[in-house]
Amino acid sequence: MSKWETGANRSIIILMASRLDVVEEVRLSYEIPYVTGKGEVLDSVTVQINEKRKGVGISYALVNSSEQHLEDLFPSDGVDWLAQMTRLTLHDLGVDPSRIILQLWEYSPAYRLYSVEGRAPVDEGRSTVLIILTKTPFVYKFGHALVLWHQAMHAKDRWDYRFPAAHPLVDAGEWLDALWHFSIDGRLEALGKPHYSRSERLEEAVAVLRRCCPNEDAAARAYQLCRELWGSETTYARLVEMGSGLGLGVGWQGSVPERS
Predict the structure, then answer these.
(1) Across 41-91, where does the E strand assignment appear?
(2) What are the φ/ψ torsions at residue 50 (nearest 5 degrees)?
């Protein structure tokens, strides 16, 4: 609320909408559902939109839902910049959905409130892209630009039907993510965009393969997979095939539908 003095003992009171008001609810459906520990099948999510900025729907997930806390965490000018950067990044990759949602999470170890960054879910109809950012030390270290480009490339692979539209909580497995990262960061490098280095991704893959494939020469296999995947477009089916050669599988079954 703002109060403007106009003189002659008069004033005008302007009621400002809360940034935390829910202005719209969007239901997103997915090809690959999430199955809870109780066997409940979740094939959709409902996202609450709190604001619309720069043509992007903004959704907040906060531990402390107060206006001042929101402004301290995600000031309006900063959210405008993130929204515009998100839209332009997706556009640069040829991803132009009818709706973009940027979901901003507050990080809290106590409440374990954190996002599933990197999933960059795209809905079943490829009409909506949901980009998720958490205000964490991770983001502070690597920067929003790197995180946005990384997520946008995940989204592009789903947008182009190389990977299925999976529920945000679906976890395909760390080994599949490690292989996918070779493709993603190699392509970002070729585009001259922020990316993780080849050595960083090799270190990640070696650590994952040592845990998942104790009988393999993890370093040698990681180098081989990196040579095959770095900078090239890949598909979910191809990564699953590579994983099966190592005796690895994913925690869910599904296929990518044909582009309509």
Answers:
(1) 41-49, 51-53, 56-61
(2) -100, -30
pLDDT digits (tens, 9 = 90+) for 97-126: 999 999 998 875 555 544 455 567 899 999
Question: 212-224 b/e with 16+ CB inside 10 Å = b?
Answer: bbeeeebeebbee
CA distance 187 to 195: 9
Q: Where are the domains of the chain?
A: 24-159, 174-245
Q: How big is the chain by its Cα radius of gyration, in Å?
A: 21
Task: Say which DSSP state 208 is in.
Answer: H
| DSSP sequence for 90-134 | HHHTT---SEEEEEEEE-BTTTTB---TT---B-TTS-EEEEEEE
Rounded Cα distance between 178 and 28, Å, is 27
Which tokens sit at 153?
Answer: 């490339």
> pLDDT tens digits for 33-52?
989 889 999 999 999 999 99
- Average pLDDT over the chain reads 85
First CA to last CA across the chain, in angstroms?
Answer: 49
- Residue (of 95, 80, 104, 237) closest to 152 by Cα position: 95
Tell me the pTM: 0.85
Residue 84 corresponds to which tokens in the numbers above? 């515009």
